[in-house]
Specification:
Blueprint (H helix, E strand, L loop, with lengths): L1 E4 L10 E5 L7 H17 L2 E6 L5 H4 L13 H10 L4 E4 L4 H4 L3 H7 L6 E7 L19 E4 L3 E2 L2 E2 L2 H9 L3 H8 L4 E7 L13 E4 L10 E9 L2 E10 L10 E6 L10 E11 L7 H17 L2
Parallel strand pairs: 1-4, 2-3, 2-5, 3-4, 5-6
Antiparallel strand pairs: 7-8, 9-10, 9-14, 10-13, 11-12, 11-14, 12-13
The structure holds flavin mononucleotide (FMN) and adenosine-5'-diphosphate.
Flavin mononucleotide binds next to strand 12, strand 13 and helix 8.
């Protein structure tokens, strides 16, 4: 897959199936658009292109809050998902005040007409341009609008997945994403307490703007130095010890190595329970033994 800033001089000239949208998470609803794109690319002997934005368009329209910078995936994972879904060319354009003022007609003239389009694919609710143009504005193209995909009679959407992650329902998030919700980060030093209670934990600090699942204890898989292990994670303030900062920590099963400075990827599989402020360390250890049993048995 080639990733480019959208410019007339950088667009590929071969016939292409153009998929339009923002695609936070590239969830099962989004994946349906790419399935159609692959079908059409085969029959029309065309490439697949996506024209999208690196950041959330709401930044231009809404009062700022930090969540506007967050995504369901890291930038790296987002690229991997586009590639896995068959995208050949990813064209990025910044969603700015100037961009937001373009009408649907301007967008077609300045962007679509620069590409050699064999077909256009959009989602069921696609609107574009300052005039809120619909697919009718794209009727000069071979245009496909993909119907909404539901799960448990409810639309699959980035908003629904975001809510599931923030409430700790990572199983629902995973089911709607079609893959496991993940966070990557550097393994850093904590209080060096974990080893003294028989449960060393790799403290994972992410530099990506992503949603952190709700505080609690989770069954996870963790990838470190190219290998994947089962583990159990804690997200919280280590209330039992009066901790002040929120950490993501993973006790990794069948693992005995020093990994400070390594990059680890944590895949969230299931919420086990909420965080508890225990009266003493013994009660915490007893609870962690139980968490371990659940995490080891989870399939
Ligand atoms: C599976 C698991 C469950 C945990 N549950 C709790 C909990 O309920 N309450 C709590 O205060 N800390 C909990 N912790 C966090 C521990 O307090 C923390 O890992 C320990 O203090 C070590 O911290 P350190 O990495 O800074 O040395 C849990 C940690 C793990 C790995
Ligand atoms: N099974 C394991 N799970 C997690 N970390 C482990 C494990 N075995 C060894 N380690 C190492 O020990 C460190 C965690 O020990 P811990 O006492 O909790 O210290 P810290 O407070 O610095 O996290 C990890 O960062 C890692 O380098």
């Amino acid at each position: 897959m080639k990733v480019r800033k959208f410019k007339e001089s950088t667009v590929d000239k071969a016939p292409t199936i153009l998929v339009l949208g923002y695609f936070d998470g590239i969830h099962r609803g989004h994946q349906a658009l790419f399935e159609k794109a692959r079908d059409l690319a085969d029959t029309k002997n065309a490439t697949i292109s996506v024209l999208t934005f690196p950041e959330n368009p709401s930044i231009v329209f809404s009062k700022f809050n930090e969540n506007l910078l967050k995504h369901l995936t890291s930038d790296k994972k987002r690229l991997q998902l586009f590639e896995k879904n068959g995208v050949d060319f990813l064209y990025l354009t910044d969603f700015t005040s100037h961009f937001a003022k373009l009408t649907s007609h301007d967008f077609i003239e300045n962007y679509l007409k620069k590409l050699n389009i064999a077909a256009v694919i959009v989602g069921f609710d696609y609107k574009f341009g300052s005039d809120n143009g619909t697919v009718k504005a794209l009727s000069d193209y071979d245009i496909y609008q993909i119907p909404q995909i539901s799960d448990s009679n409810e639309k699959i959407s980035s908003t629904r997945i975001r809510k599931a992650v923030l409430s700790g329902d990572v199983e629902l998030a995973n089911q709607l994403l079609g893959y496991h919700y993940e966070l990557s980060g550097l393994v850093v030093h904590g209080e060096a307490r974990g080893r003294t209670i028989g449960y060393p934990t790799a403290n994972v600090e992410s530099k990506d703007y992503q949603y952190m699942p709700a505080t609690g204890v989770y069954v996870v898989d963790i990838e470190v130095a190219g290998k994947c292990y089962r583990g159990m994670a804690s997200i919280g303030y280590n209330d039992t010890f009066g901790g002040q900062t929120k950490t993501l920590e993973v006790n990794i099963f069948e693992f005995h190595d020093e990994i400070y400075g390594e990059t680890a990827t944590v895949y969230f599989l299931k919420l086990i329970r909420g965080m508890v402020k225990f009266d003493g360390v013994e009660a915490l250890i007893t609870q962690m033994k139980n968490d371990e049993k659940i995490a080891r048995e989870f399939v």
